[in-house]
Amino acid sequence: MGSLCSSYITNISSSSTSNESLSPSFESSKYLQLKHFHYLSTLGEGSFGKVILVRRKSNERLYAIKLINTDRLIDLRKREYAMFERQVLVEFQNPFIVKLHHIFESSGKLCFVLDFMQGGNLGFHLKKHNRFSNRVVAFFAAEVIVALEILHKKEFIYRDLKPENILLDIDGHIKLADFNLSTTIEDLNDTICGSPEYAAPEVLNGEIQGIELDFWGFGVLLYHMLQGTTPFRANSYFDICKNILLSKYSFTSNFDKNAIDLISKLLVANPKERLTNHMAIKNHKFFADIDWASVEARNLESPIKLRVKNPLDLKYFPKKKYPTMTFSAQNELDVNQNDQSSYSQFSDFSYNSEIN
């Protein structure tokens, strides 16, 4: 955390103002706790923890909070992944990337406070429609390639492109999320990561991975959106990997010649021979009807019309029952008294967009 933030926290702690009465703009992430939010719903769950919908008590705004169990972060690799997600979200304040507002530790959870994306994820809509038309695919693929280009220009590799990580705002525009598998080009490694059906051959072979990895994922995404299934689908993890390594996939009548040509240039097993040029992709005939200046300005109208009844309408999220959660001041006090080292262990994660 920068020196400005450090001095800001020092001034707050030396003030006679209580933590509870701090104004929203003056409230440091050091003092934020789950008790400062009303729990509304659980949006999803994964191996990392869960994502919940909350309303902040001080300003009544809705947020999504990604909760990561801090006991998972004892593993240095998992801590590294979480720290890298922080780095990406802090560095890229961009409309194509989900906005981070705060990070704080509370009740044994590392809490990433993010914009609530009421449109759900692209995977939800793909399942609902079974597959998308060329026009719809061109729109979403155009926004995705612009988002990837933003990352690649600063030598970041996404590494986990899939429909579930592509969130939609209420206007139907995309934002990339879930950066815990991302890395920089200078930190290239041979780690197996990401979703099996989107895994590139170099990942399965344990080879050094570069930005070529994201272009493979982009090719799989194009196929997935047009066909409704992934190109290397199979009944077992072993067979999926086998199909990927053998480049065993085929096209159906759902693909026109331009889609086939672009996907075939992206799903090339040898990363050195794969299409990895953003401008060449933008100039491809598949995107002939796309106005790229309008894409970058987010001025194109989304082909998916999202209609919600109110700000709490969760119609674009899976209807799955999760246990409810309660945040109480007493619970927070109990945790803090029992684990005085909690904040110091995770203070390097702390972030407040209103200060930093």
UniProtKB/TrEMBL annotation:
Q: SMART domains in the record, alphabetically?
A: S_TKc
Please state every residue range assigned to the domain named AGC-kinase C-terminal.
288-356
Lineage, top-rank taxon, reads Eukaryota
Gene3D superfamilies the record matches? Phosphorylase Kinase, domain 1, Transferase(Phosphotransferase) domain 1
Keywords linked to the UniProt accession: ATP-binding, Kinase, Nucleotide-binding, Phosphoprotein, Serine/threonine-protein kinase, Transferase
- Pfam families associated with the record: Pkinase
Q: Does the keyword Kinase apply?
A: yes
Asked whether the UniProt record includes Kinase among its keywords, one would answer yes
Q: Which GO terms describe its molecular function?
A: ATP binding; protein serine/threonine kinase activity
InterPro entries according to UniProt: AGC-kinase_C, Kinase-like_dom_sf, Prot_kinase_dom, Protein_kinase_ATP_BS, Ser/Thr_kinase_AS, STKc_AGC
Q: Which residues bind ATP?
A: K66
Domain Protein kinase span(s) in chain numbering: 37-287
Instruction: Provide the family line.
Output: Belongs to the protein kinase superfamily.
What is this protein's name?
Protein kinase domain-containing protein
Q: Which organism is it from?
A: Stentor coeruleus
